[in-house]
Design goal:
By secondary structure, the protein is α/β, with parallel strands linked by helices. Helices cover 17% and strands 27% of the residues. The chain contains four helices and 24 strands. The longest helix has 14 residues.
Length: 230
């Protein structure tokens, strides 16, 4: 394998990986910082479904070498797997790799807001004033987070979702496509807000809610695999 200097490993080989690869291909950031996406790892697939000049493997023996020969990482695990994304990311950081942000130039982040590390912020998304965005979050296309809201670690705000002002979202929460969260509401950690739902009252942790108005349908039992680090 190649020299360690400036190599990036992407953990996860699905379509989110492809989105990240396309983002970096059209970004001046990597060239400016002498970085290159070198490796993709995903234990759940046999091969990538798209062509690219990266080294792919699903073997832990190769992963050992990939990590050893990398300096930076980004975890391409989306959907409701925010806790897995967070735990994998934190373990890679503790090993000594540096998390990368993939923030699209067509997104808007107000200068009074603060954002964490390892973020994926997609085109058309808007983060208004005095917000706080945690680590390893995904803010998807055209999602809007209004003033004074707090988003915890490992969250996924899906396409077109609207988080109104002063909303507090716990860690590892997924807010589905085109869902709406009304002002001053608290979403408990590990909860899942169904697509198109309208949330008019606070949601307890590890709860799945759907509908307009949103109602609980069951508890959310998140499953994740970080066995490599055990």
């Amino acid at each position: 394998m190649a020299s360690k200097k400036g190599n990036i490993i992407i953990w996860g080989g699905g379509l989110r990986c492809l989105k990240i690869l396309n983002f970096f291909k059209n970004s001046k950031f990597l060239k400016k910082n002498n970085l290159k996406v070198k490796y993709v790892y995903d234990k759940f697939i046999k091969k990538l479904d798209f062509k690219n000049n990266v080294f792919f493997s699903n073997k832990n023996s190769d992963l050992d070498k990939m990590i050893k020969n990398s300096t930076h990482f980004i975890v391409a695990i989306g959907s409701e797997h925010g806790k897995a994304r967070y735990l994998i990311s934190e373990n890679l950081r503790k090993i000594g790799l540096e998390p990368l942000n993939a923030i699209n130039k067509f997104s808007i982040i107000d200068s009074t807001s603060t954002v964490g590390k390892g973020l994926q912020i997609e085109p058309g998304s808007i983060i208004q004033g005095n917000c706080k965005i945690g680590n390893y979050c995904i803010i998807n296309t055209n999602a809007a987070i209004d003033h004074g809201s707090v988003i915890g670690d490992g969250c996924h705000i899906m396409t077109g979702a609207s988080v109104a002002g002063r909303v507090n979202v716990g860690d590892f929460v997924t807010i589905g496509t085109n869902a709406t969260i009304l002002p001053d509401i608290k979403i408990g950690s590990g909860s899942y807000i169904g697509a198109g739902s309208v949330v008019i009252k606070s949601v307890k942790k590890n709860t799945i809610v759907v509908g307009n108005p949103a109602k609980k349908i069951k508890s959310n039992k998140q499953k994740f695999d970080i066995s490599y680090f055990k």
